[in-house]
Amino acid sequence: MVHRRLFDDDGKGLDEALNEPGQFGDGLIVRGSHYVILDNFNNSTLCHRLLGEKLLLKSQPFISTFPVSPSEWMAKFPTQYSGLARDLPPNVHLLTLERLDHTHHLLRLEHQFQSNEQPYNNTVTVQLADLFTTMKVVDVVELGLGANAALSDIHRLHWNTESHGAKGRYQSAEAKMKSPFIVELKPMEIHTFNITVEYTI
Hints:
- The protein is of the alpha+beta class.
- Helices cover 11% and strands 23% of the residues.
- The chain contains two helices and eight strands; from the N terminus they run ββααββββββ.
- The radius of gyration is 24 Å and the shape is extended.
- GO terms for molecular function: alpha-mannosidase activity; carbohydrate binding.
- InterPro entries: Gal_mutarotase_sf_dom, GH38_C, Glycosyl_Hydrlase_38.
């Protein structure tokens, strides 16, 4: 419920009226946007995944006064920057890049398409060593998704089931890395790493 205004107890356990008048006394107001995609299944799947990422992580405009004209500012100061040395494949999303200390960062990469969502449902590889513009990756330790343990230290329970269709589903992600610096991502997989870096500038 968006507008929760019950002037009498509704008998569902709260035992009191539920009145959220909002800032101006006219109830809580939520404003949003709806996007409608009119296309076939394959194209709409591609569109909604990439559009959803752009909407969630859209640029935030900031407005300020300038002591000089915009052209003078752009001539004196850099106005564009990317921390990536190259674009990631369209089906890969950099989910987390968090500095842990001076030389270690937490990195998560996500394959954001399902196995039935063409055309980007293929397995993809990402080279980590030279992925960033200002730092070189010199060591990689793969972690569990929660980043609280090395993946090599995680031992999953093995269950006896009648169906063996899921056999190998929880294969160690380290075995999927073609080298310490090249990770392979299958549809909907998320890989977590503790990367050691050297700064290049």
